[in-house]
Amino acid sequence: MSQADHSISAAILVIGDEILSGRTKDKNIGFIADYLMALGIDLREVRIVADDEQDIIDAVNALRQRYTYLFTTGGIGPTHDDITADAIAKALGLELYEDPRIIALMLERLKPEDLNEARRRMARIPRGADHVENKISKVPGFMIENVIVMAGVPAIMQTMLDSVAPRLRTGAKMIVETLETVGLPEGLYAKGLGEVAALYPSVSIGSYPSFGEGRFKNSIVVRGKDAEQVAAAVTAVQELMDRLRAEQA
Amino acid sequence: MSQADHSISAAILVIGDEILSGRTKDKNIGFIADYLMALGIDLREVRIVADDEQDIIDAVNALRQRYTYLFTTGGIGPTHDDITADAIAKALGLELYEDPRIIALMLERLKPEDLNEARRRMARIPRGADHVENKISKVPGFMIENVIVMAGVPAIMQTMLDSVAPRLRTGAKMIVETLETVGLPEGLYAKGLGEVAALYPSVSIGSYPSFGEGRFKNSIVVRGKDAEQVAAAVTAVQELMDRLRAEQA
User: Fold this and answer.
1) What is the Cα–Cα distance from A12 to A44, expressed in whole angstroms?
2) What is the tens place of the pLDDT at every residue in B74-95?
3) pTM to 2 decimals?
4) Selected residue of A9, A34, A48, A184 to mutate for chain B interface (largest B Cβ count, 10 A)
5) Which residue among A101, B202, B203, B222 is least crowded, i.e. fewest CB within 10 A of its CB?
6) A194, A152: one domain
7) Closest approach of chain A CAs to the CA of B136, in angstroms?
């Protein structure tokens, strides 16, 4: 039986014109990818869309139905372009309401006369949503069904991930082994590596070239959840490399 | 008439398990976003998918039909997990063939006996595709219909963008003005900013908080293609800020 049958999967939806325009370089995708990997949740897809309600709704519905969890970042502030809560409520067919518990949290930091209409928008969450705590600026994100809605500011998003993590179902942790292929070009080991990959279908084997200082360097990454299968595949890759080096010498 | 009617749009599809696992932090999205902005092409959506043929096909077909151009990165090397060319050919219903011009390029750098089966895989492109030159390792990417297929290694991807750029239709350049909101919290100007945004529908106005050294800093970005409208919106935002500062003083 495939390990994948028991896997917990996830997608990320990044919401924000500022990422698509290049103005802001996203730092959340890589952080969440690492975080989910450590939890044993498989990140399977990422989308970045503009601050456009229909685009957000379409992406939310495509992703929440396909994966165990959908994490969104961005668009939950007080300005007119912050429309994530509205879009999530529409995507799920739920009423958006002003949560008095969030108003109370805001009043811990604001004078009542400063709690204006725009700031009150941040207290609106879909009916039935749970808070996702924000340790920095207090106004929480929320989790509704399998959708986790977080801020776009990285420091806040990270505290929200910490807050929601204990509530998530997690799968078997991925075991990851990396081999450096010193002196062997990718084109030389590609065929043999494909044969090893075919022998260990529960294991994912990737070859990742990088280029710097005028030369290529390759890494081979072996990933899987079955420790014995990963170890056997690593041994097979190592033997392949040793054989190819011997042939080159 | 809306400026958007004349806009040239694009999406990016990043292909690679290594991004989703967190092993590699993507550097291509931000680079391409900046590059397209400078060309006057509007980046509207980004997706990241795994090295899974059906996932790639589905994303390619969704994105190439919706936008003027689709740029893909990753998955065009010689190893078993490099399946982008196969998936693109299937998505477009085209035959994949070994291009003798690419074999000739490879033989400029390889001895004939080193041109093995795995390396020959990199010479396969869909029937009718044009090359996208690779100044670093020579094996080209390709452009077929409105899909531009590039390497995942950033240095190579960047030479490919330079190679394909002269072939692209470009739109009016985006004019971008950034205002710093020193001393004004986002919640204070959010309502007024929304009113300005409503007055200038051809202009996009975003408010971007960032957090560092224990405090928030906000930027307001005004973007549009009509210089007069952008200038008028910037003036209106500036007047709003001046008024709010005067009220606070």
Assistant:
1) 9
2) 999 999 999 999 999 999 999 9
3) 0.93
4) A48
5) A101
6) no
7) 9
